[in-house]
Task: inverse folding
């Protein structure tokens, strides 16, 4: 799984009527992932100002406006890939348009835990 | 930090670059243990950083370092003596010899043996280049992992496993016998070339890995100096020098990507080009052509544009034909297609690209970039998809922007 962290400039470049180079780069990247047969799924997320964060404190709901972590780069989307190794995942992460400006976190899924939860 | 401290630190760094590999090579060969040699030499450099600023620079920094490394081995020997192991005895003998070597004015340069051991066929191919970087230059696993885009923990494991392999399999720290030399030398040359980055001309790799370009140049120079009669060693040095010479011209003032055909030759480093030409000429005199000499010769033709103002594509295509015959790598096949496009036009070049297996090129960015340009020149609607593929596989943001603009 690639966790895509984007800068405020990246978020700004995602919206608007005109196609930006950033979105064009994402289109190309997505196409390369699909053509290489490694794309499983994923989606972009709406801008951070749409986020709300929920916690229960002593049984009481606390809802906070905004994202969980207050950082410059924010989670902007996720991409799930099927790859043979961590090295291959790092290779694809480096090609992600967000890697040049924000950051791309690479994490393996946990199929064993998934099995214990969903079976 | 004072200026004097700064000066000492710079001196230690300068000494380290040349001496680290020599010291590790000397100790590793006698100890038959790369990791132990690295530990002792590493300790010696740490000691240098703390004592030299206080006591001043020793007359013979290398001898000082070897003596200090010896003392560390002595200390280790004393700790292990009670075990009365053969290993402890070996450590003691080694420490005595280190003392004699340090007393002499020169001690032999055995880095070549260390390079051959690191690129031995028994060592995992993915570990050879990192191992050379670590043993000869003292780069740490994290820096190597960054350059090769591998997780730092994975890189550490690879290096540790490879050093264990050298010890357990008793891999010799020797220059191979003449009948073995060509094949074994190829592995060393390829490892050093891999330090330089991707194998295709001005492709993104060389710029992204700019941090290690100096290291590659340094290793190639050491290798060519230690093997003056091996034309391929000089060929590799010439190739790296040609590519480095173009570095200043590869980016415009605003940081945007400039393809080779649009580079201003005035911005090339002409001293480096002369150095490259001299090495290539010396290699050619041997009458034994090889992959690296041919690749350097191709770059030499490109460099001629600085004088003639034009590129002799016919010569480049002919050199690529020979290169493909000798070493049909993806880079050579794609490079040849690009040259064919200039001589016989884009349709002929596209045929060449179509002959390359489709599995091999799936993730090879330069293939898609060349294909996109050819299709665009032919007015073929498939150009957009090829551009997308080339853009999606690009890692360098400057190259990505350049291709996005070209695609339109």
Result:
């Amino acid at each position: 799984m690639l966790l895509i962290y984007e800068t405020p400039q990246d978020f700004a470049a995602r919206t608007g009527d005109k196609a930006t180079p950033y979105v064009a780069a994402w289109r190309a990247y997505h196409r390369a992932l699909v053509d290489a047969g490694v794309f499983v799924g994923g989606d972009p997320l709406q801008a951070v100002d749409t986020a709300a964060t929920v916690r229960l404190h002593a049984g009481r709901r606390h809802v906070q406006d905004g994202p969980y972590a207050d950082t410059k780069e924010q989670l902007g989307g996720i991409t799930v890939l099927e790859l043979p190794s961590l090295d291959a995942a790092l290779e694809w992460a480096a090609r992600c348009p967000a890697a040049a400006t924000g950051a791309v976190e690479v994490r393996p899924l946990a199929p064993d835990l998934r099995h214990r939860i969903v079976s | 930090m004072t200026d004097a401290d700064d000066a000492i630190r710079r001196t230690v760094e300068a000494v380290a670059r040349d001496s680290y590999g020599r010291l590790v090579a000397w100790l590793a060969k006698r100890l038959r243990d790369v990791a132990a040699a690295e530990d002792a030499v590493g300790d010696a450099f740490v000691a240098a950083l703390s004592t030299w600023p206080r006591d001043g620079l020793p007359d013979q920094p290398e001898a000082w370092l070897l003596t200090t490394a010896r003392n560390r081995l002595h200390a280790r020997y004393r700790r292990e003596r009670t075990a009365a192991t053969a290993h402890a005895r070996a450590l003691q003998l080694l420490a005595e010899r280190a003392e004699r070597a340090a007393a002499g004015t020169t001690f032999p340069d055995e880095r070549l043996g260390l390079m051959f051991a690191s690129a031995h066929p028994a060592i995992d191919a993915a570990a050879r280049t990192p191992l050379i970087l670590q043993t000869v230059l003292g780069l740490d696993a994290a820096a190597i992992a960054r350059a090769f885009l591998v997780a730092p923990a994975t890189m550490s494991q690879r290096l540790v496993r490879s050093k264990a392999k050298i010890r357990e399999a008793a891999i010799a720290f020797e220059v191979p016998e003449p009948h073995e030399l060509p094949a074994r030398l190829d592995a060393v040359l390829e490892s050093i070339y891999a330090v330089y980055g991707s194998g295709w001309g001005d492709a993104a790799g060389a710029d992204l890995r700019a941090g290690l370009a100096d290291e590659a140049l340094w290793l190639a120079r050491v290798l060519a100096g230690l093997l003056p009669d091996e034309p391929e060693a000089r060929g590799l040095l010439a190739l790296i020098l040609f590519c480095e010479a173009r570095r200043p011209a590869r980016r415009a003032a605003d940081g945007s990507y400039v393809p080779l055909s649009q580079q201003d030759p005035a911005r090339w480093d002409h001293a480096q080009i002369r150095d490259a030409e001299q090495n290539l000429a010396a290699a050619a005199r041997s009458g034994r052509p090889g992959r690296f000499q041919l690749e350097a010769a191709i770059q030499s033709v490109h460099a001629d544009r600085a004088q003639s103002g034009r590129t002799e594509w016919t010569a480049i295509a002919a050199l690529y034909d020979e290169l493909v015959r000798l070493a049909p790598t993806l880079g050579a096949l794609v490079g040849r297609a690009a040259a064919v496009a200039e001589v016989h036009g884009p349709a002929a070049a596209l045929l060449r690209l179509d002959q390359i297996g489709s599995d091999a090129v799936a993730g090879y960015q330069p293939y898609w970039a060349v294909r996109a340009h050819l299709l665009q020149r032919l007015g073929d609607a498939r150009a957009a998809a090829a551009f997308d593929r080339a853009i999606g596989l690009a890692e360098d943001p400057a190259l990505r922007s350049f291709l996005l603009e070209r695609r339109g």
Notes: Residues 62 and 326 of chain B are 42 Å apart (CA to CA). Confidence is low (pLDDT under 50) at residues 198-210 of chain B. The first helix of chain B runs from residue 3 to 31. Residues 3-109 of chain B form one domain.
